[in-house]
Design brief:
By secondary structure, this protein is an alpha/beta fold. The chain is built from 14 helices and 9 strands. Keywords: Oxidoreductase.
Length: 318
């Protein structure tokens, strides 16, 4: 099982420079890759550049970048620029994001998200490998001056159309906050889609919240991550079956995040996260491996554990 680290995955009230501390620690501990997520606070390419300048060797992946916000060339140019400045391979992750972010933050319509994901992934597949001297995009009179960024193309997927896009174009498919049972089902869909596309299946990774020997604040942060998924199709039934029906109903009624965190029992974190003592977490990692996951991207809780040091140290490379 490969293990990487997410410097910032989703919005919360942690210090704005916490992602840099997480990345520096991950690099020092020997993790091979750090993800620079994108959200209302951080632009993923700016953050990836800052991480590259603050670390020594860790590989970088920018995103998932919302495909309704940036065009394929802008994404490819951003990754190539980060690679030149940092001297590191830089990968790109694509995702559809949410209406709350795309329309509520960027003021852009989130229309045909699955089609936009397919169009951007297909275009990026070529743009990320365009050689110096070639046209910046097919047919352009402008020529590429920056070398290809050298990292993988990742597609965040959950629904069938997104999985088909990942199977057809990506080097890696990304899941977010999933149970081992969901990994098994989604991997089967990925293998079938790759066979239809005539491609070798992409590697399968998942962002998973993680907190080893968590403080109460750490656990609350993990539960806050889970709260946003209580109304998402494909998750509602799983949480209800896990005995969390009351929280699911509250979410459907429009309860705010703090209310949902209070309604979620601590055991809820065990459904889709890595929480507990080191032995418990290691056993959980083994369960994800057996389910078919190739890579876990740790989203360390930093509340009560600055930079996620306790968690990243416990789960770091031997």
């Amino acid at each position: 099982m490969d293990i990487s680290v997410v410097a910032v995955g989703r919005e919360d009230d942690s210090p704005v420079d916490e992602p840099l501390r997480v990345a520096v620690l991950a690099d020092r501990l020997g993790y091979r890759e750090v993800w620079a997520g994108e959200g209302p606070t951080w632009d993923s390419f700016v953050l990836a550049t800052a991480i590259g300048q603050a670390t020594e060797r860790v590989a970088l992946t920018a995103g998932p970048v919302p495909v309704s916000v940036r065009d394929a060339y802008t994404i490819a140019r951003g990754a190539a620029g980060v690679a030149v400045i940092t001297g590191r391979p830089v990968g790109v992750a694509l995702g559809t994001s949410s209406k709350r972010v795309v329309e509520g933050v960027h003021g852009r319509p989130r229309e045909r998200p699955a089609a936009a994901l397919e169009e951007n992934a297909a275009a990026l597949r070529g743009l990320l490998h365009t050689a110096v001297g070639g046209p910046v995009v097919p047919g352009s009179t402008f020529h590429r001056r920056l070398a290809p960024p050298g990292g993988p193309l990742t597609v965040a997927a959950f629904g069938d159309r997104a999985i088909a896009t990942a199977a057809a174009h990506a080097d890696r498919m990304l899941l977010d906050i999933v149970s081992p049972e969901q990994v098994t089902a989604l991997r089967a869909k990925l293998l079938a889609a790759a066979e239809r596309a005539g491609r070798t299946p992409p590697r399968l990774a998942a962002w998973l919240p993680a907190a080893v020997d968590p403080e109460p604040e750490s656990l609350a942060q993990v539960l806050g991550s889970i709260a946003g998924y209580l109304t998402v199709p494909g998750y509602r039934d799983m949480f209800t079956a896990a005995g969390l029906g009351e929280a699911v109903e509250l979410a459907a009624a429009g309860a705010d995040s703090k209310s949902l965190v209070r309604a979620l029992p601590p055991r809820a974190a065990g459904t889709v996260a890595l929480v507990g003592d080191p032995g418990t977490v290691r056993a959980r990692i083994d369960a994800y491996a057996e389910a078919g996951l190739d890579e876990i991207a740790l989203v360390p809780a930093t509340a009560g554990d600055p930079a996620g040091e306790r968690t990243l140290t416990a789960l770091g490379p031997a």
